[in-house]
Each structure stands twice: as structure tokens, then as C-alpha cells.
Amino acid sequence: xxxxxxxxxxxxxxxxxxxxxxxxxxxxxxxxxxxxxxxxxxxxxxxxxxxxxxxxxxxxxxxxxxxxxxxxxxxxxxxxxxxxxxxxxxxxxxxxxxxxxxxxxxxxxxxxxxxxxxxxxxxxxxxxxxxxxxxxxxxxxxxxxxxxxxxxxxxxxxxxxxxxxxxxxxxxxxxxxxxxxxxxxxxxxxxxxxxxxxxxxxxxxxxxxxxxxxxxxxxxxxxxxxxxxxxxxxxxxxxxxxxxxxxxxxxxxxxxxxxxxxxxxxxxxxxxxxxxxxxxx
Length: 281
Hints:
Blueprint: H1 23-38, H2 72-79, H3 87-90, H4 93-100, H5 104-114, H6 121-129, H7 133-147, H8 150-159, E1 166-167, H9 168-178, H10 194-198, H11 204-226, E2 230-233, E3 242-245, H12 250-253, H13 259-279
Antiparallel strand pairs: 1-3, 2-3
Helix pairs in contact: 4-5, 5-7, 9-13
């Protein structure tokens, strides 16, 4: 399975309309499709890509299929989110639904962005209406990232190193370690551990910082989830929630951390994942 194949499509001004993949990616896909055809093999290849044009692909035997849009019933349910907008913005409902065009994430992001008080709604909607749907998510993602504080952006970037959903204690350990903080154990409350956190602290300011670090973490993660920049889910009752950053954000998050910060984050992530998934399993 070749997932998120759009990462092989440069999104610069020269390629924004043609959506052609890099020469290297083209040759690799061509070789795989050629081998499958030569061996007369059953379908063994799935390619997922946000941007796809038939005339940009090598000769292939792939069945091209687009994801279906939401049903009218699902759209009606999602449209209830628009009740969170003020009265003036609710008059924009037909334009908002037209821009989302059945894309649930696009509609979620539109509602979040339009609820930001400092935003020019008319200017944003006009901008979105002037581009193809596949590029509207990028515009909204950049807008949402710009709303976040610097540390909130960094936590989001650090969480993006995980390709699979991970539990809260993994996210917490990696994000706090990368910031030079010692994370609390997953089952421990910052309130119950006031005395332990206070040991060795020489000033009230240090104490406040140590006690509040986990509270800050939970507040930031909660905000990122409410912005739908982080996906959170459970499979069964009483399961610890897992978190994952949508891959759409990955290219936009690269400049947020320095190369050294990315390296530190990946090292911390590797250690914690090994501990959680191997040593403790």
C-alpha cells in the first residue's frame, strides 16, 4: 500500500495546476505497475492520493476511485455545527456548505476558523471559492495553525512524528521530554502530586511551573482536538484515548521545529514507543 502518495507531488506554483509527481516517484510507480502486469498478478497494490489526475499517471491497470461525498443526511447533521456561529455568519450557511462540498473535515475546519473573532469571514470564503476543493484544506489548515500559540504549534509538530495513533502517556512523555520537562506518570494527578513536585524547587515560580505543566498539556491537547487538528478516539469502553495528527498537516509543520528539535523529538518518540510497546507489553 502506497499511502499519502500526494507527498510525491510538489505543490509549488509551477506544478499547482498540472499536479505531476516527481520523476523518481513516477518511475517507481511505473515499475510496480509494470511488474504486476507482467506477472499477471491479482490486484496487490493500493495507492491513496489526495490529488489525482489520470493523465499524470504512468501506464497502469489500477482502478481509479474517488471517495464518496457525505450523504445529505450526514451533511444535515454536520450543518448543526453552524449553530455555533453568530447570527450574521449563519447567513453564510449556503456558501459554507457549498465550499465544503460534502467533505466532513473541510466543514469542521470551516466552522472552527469562522468562530475566530479576528478573522475576516468574507475574505476567507471568497479565497476558498476561487480554488479547487483539494486545495481548500491547505488554506484552512494554514489559517488554523496561525491561530495557535507557538508552544501549541510545537506540540502539534511533535505529535506528528507518530504515524499510528498513540496513547496520552506516550504523547505526554515525548512532548514534555522535548521541552526539557519531566513528565508525570499517566495515572498521577498534578493536584495530588503537589508535594512531590515541590521537592527540590527553590522558588514559588518554579513550583507553579512544575505543577501546571501537565494542566497546560491537557489544555493544549484539548484545544488541538477541538480544532480537529488532532484526531482522538477509543475503540471500547474505558479505553485510554489515542491521538494522531492528520497527515495533511505534515508539510505545514516542518518549519515549526528546528532540525535539532525534530531529532530530539524523534529520539524521545523512539525510546517511549519501545518502552510502551515492547518492554511493558
